[in-house]
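Much of our argument rests on the idea that a fold can be written as discrete symbols. Part of our work consisted of pairing the sequence of a single chain with a tokenised description of its backbone. The amino acid sequence and the backbone structure tokens for this protein are reproduced below.
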Amino acid sequence: MVNTKSTEKSRASRESQDPRSAEGEGGSVTDDRPSPMEVLRQARAQLAELTGMAAESVSSFEQTEDGWSLEIEVLELARVPDTMSLMASYQVDLDPEGQLTGYRRVRRYERGRADAHRPGGR
């Protein structure tokens, strides 16, 4: 009877010490960078923690030379009716590992208002 747990542990230990173990199937090199979905989740959580405002949506997301750049929509001031609530778009920059490196508010608007004069809704 083979102890599969110890076999898996020893293989994992060897792979973590062997620089060639970064090669996956087909010889492609893998790394420890977060997936795009992990980056989105991290960005929303980090912005909420810093500003105290919950992120409602991500309206722009792209990978850059320096990491990631997102535009996140947040509720800044709740009003009644909800269509009069004040929303804001924040430009959020993250490093390649998904850690927030900076943010700034790029616009503020009422939830019920369309932004017809800006291309792409930005």
